[in-house]
């Protein structure tokens, strides 16, 4: 090799070694859903802009994510630099010193553009501790073409009686078509997200003002009875294995007439790459029973930085990019405006292109604006949260109750036994935690 070429080769090799040595890794724990997979794909753009950073993704399903994130931040193991969590975890984890405040953001981030309800819910002691990737409530998605064929009309505010009537009219289980899809997979953020909104609307609560459990009341009995009736009569077999992703697949492939779940689903259902029902879906408010209080949830999947993160600076830089206006525009360019991360920024909902391309936008915004975690029940309660109780003990308690509800669906226990199991578990939990004597 000629001396000049040899020198150039050594320079290139040395340069590559220096870049590699200077490059820092950001390990991200994220939930396995379509919006997150799109983020992973588009993160190549971030890496172009930040060649000194590499990204290590750990993408798992919801229940596993919660377990791994809680273990990591509570033990301070520093396995993750950036974690996906929500309105339940953010203030609880921050109070325990497990999260770093976000601190100053780039001027063009425009934090005021982010909905105040999410900023408040992702803050502790006046400090923002997480940045919302998307925000959501829950609503009813239904096949408006099939409703028209059957001569059915969706009311402005459907009730659970309406849902049962519509599901019965549209159900064709023998042909693999189901009247209604609901979550059945056990977990406080899985089947209990659905069950809690039903229970709230039937007039139930988890606790009274003295923190005494109220899980064996007639209202809970009515809610659980209705839930089990709906999933067994009009849902698919094996419903206790179905969470958000499974029901998304069912509905988007044209195998269900109705689906009650997260408003974030709208963008996926209107994307021809992912859905066979584009243009056929109507969006209505979540059903109610005796009260609208707590009948639809408020949630955000958000990025937070654990206190023991090894690369907090790189984590913050990526989180700010992934939740920015720039990123929303990137998704719009790649998938279309209907598929951008919803529910976080006022500017998205003021954008004429989004209004035109996202038929679910108005329903999502209304649901998010009317969901009130401070008044989740028709009676006064000592807690905040619609699909959760904002206390540390709820993560375990909610999941145990979710497992009991799954046992009721599969016939492992009776309704009366399930109510008793739930009440006993809640009493035991609250006594151990010192809420009750």
Describe this structure in words.
- The chain is an alpha+beta fold and about 425 residues long.
- The chain folds into two domains: about 20-135 and about 300-355, D-Maltodextrin-Binding Protein, domain 2 (3-Layer(aba) Sandwich), CATH 3.40.190; about 140-295 and about 370-430, 3-Layer(aba) Sandwich (D-Maltodextrin-Binding Protein, domain 2).
- It contains 18 helices and ten strands.
- It has helices spanning about 5-20, 35-50, 60-75, 90-95, 115-120, 145-150, 160-170, 190-200, 220-235, 245-250, 265-270, 310-320, 325-335, 345-350, 350-355, 360-370, 395-410, 415-430, and strands at about 25-30, 55-60, 80-85, 125, 125-130, 130-135, 140-145, 260, 280-285, 300-305.
- A five-stranded mixed β-sheet has the order 2-1-3-10-6. It has a three-stranded antiparallel β-sheet with strand order 8-7-9.
- Helix 2 (about 35-50) links the parallel strand 1 (about 25-30) and strand 2.
- The longest helix has 20 residues, at about 5-20.
- It is globular and about 60 Å long.
CATH architecture of the largest domain: 3-Layer(aba) Sandwich
N to C succession of SSEs: HEHEHEHHEEEEHHHHHEHEEHHHHHHH
Mean pLDDT: 94
Q: Please indicate the percent range of residues in DSSP E strands (runs of 2 or more).
A: 5-15%
The first-level CATH class name of the largest domain: Alpha Beta
Helix and strand composition category: alpha+beta
Total discrete domains: 2
Total DSSP E strands:
10
Based on CA atoms alone, the radius of gyration comes out at 23 Å
Number of helices: 18
Side-by-side strand order of the widest sheet: 2-1-3-10-6
Main pleated sheet: 5 strands, mixed
Low-confidence sequence ranges: 8-21
Coarse morphology: globular
Distance between the termini: 84 Å
User: Which bin fits the share of residues in helices?
Assistant: 40-55%
| CATH homologous superfamily designation of the largest domain | Periplasmic binding protein-like II
CATH T-level topology of the largest domain: D-Maltodextrin-Binding Protein, domain 2
């Amino acid at each position: 090799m000629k001396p000049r070429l040899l020198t150039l080769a050594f320079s290139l090799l040395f340069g590559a070694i220096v870049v590699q040595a200077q490059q820092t890794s950001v390990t991200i724990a994220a939930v396995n859903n379509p919006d997150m997979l799109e983020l992973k794909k588009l993160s190549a753009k971030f890496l172009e802009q930040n060649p000194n950073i590499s990204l290590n993704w750990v993408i798992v399903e919801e229940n596993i994510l919660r377990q791994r994130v809680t273990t990591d931040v509570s033990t301070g193991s520093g396995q993750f630099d950036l974690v996906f969590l929500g309105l339940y975890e953010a203030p609880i984890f921050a109070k325990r010193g497990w999260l770093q405040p976000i601190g100053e953001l780039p001027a063009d981030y425009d934090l005021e553009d982010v909905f105040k309800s999410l900023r408040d819910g992702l803050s502790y002691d006046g400090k923002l501790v997480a940045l919302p990737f998307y925000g959501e409530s829950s609503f009813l998605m239904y096949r408006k073409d099939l409703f028209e064929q059957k001569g059915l009309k969706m009311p402005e505010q459907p009730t659970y009686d309406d849902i049962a009537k519509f599901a019965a009219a549209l159900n064709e289980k023998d042909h693999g078509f189901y009247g209604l899809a609901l979550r059945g997979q056990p977990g406080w953020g899985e089947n209990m997200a659905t069950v809690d909104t039903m229970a709230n609307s039937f007039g139930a609560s988890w606790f009274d003002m003295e923190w005494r459990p109220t899980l064996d009341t007639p209202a809970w009995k009515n809610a659980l009875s209705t839930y089990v009736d709906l999933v067994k009569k009009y849902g698919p077999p094996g419903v206790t294995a179905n969470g958000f992703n499974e029901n998304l697949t069912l509905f988007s492939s044209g195998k269900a007439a109705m689906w009650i779940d997260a408003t974030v689903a709208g963008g996926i259902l209107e994307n021809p790459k992912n859905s066979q029902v584009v243009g056929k879906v109507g969006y209505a408010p979540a059903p109610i029973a005796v009260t609208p209080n707590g009948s639809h949830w408020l949630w955000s999947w958000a990025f937070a930085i654990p206190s023991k993160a090894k690369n907090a600076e790189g984590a913050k830089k990526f989180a700010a990019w992934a939740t920015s206006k720039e990123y929303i525009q990137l998704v719009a360019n790649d998938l279309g405006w209907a598929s951008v991360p919803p529910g976080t920024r006022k500017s998205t909902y003021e954008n004429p292109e989004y209004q035109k391309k996202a038929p679910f936008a108005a329903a999502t915004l209304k649901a998010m604006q009317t969901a009130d975690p401070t008044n989740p029940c028709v009676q006064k309660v000592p807690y905040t949260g619609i699909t959760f109780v904002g206390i540390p003990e709820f993560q375990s308690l909610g999941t145990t109750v979710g497992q009991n509800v799954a046992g009721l669906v599969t016939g492992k226990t009776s309704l009366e036994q399930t109510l008793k199991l739930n009440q006993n578990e809640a009493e035991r939990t609250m006594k151990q935690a010192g809420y009750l004597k």
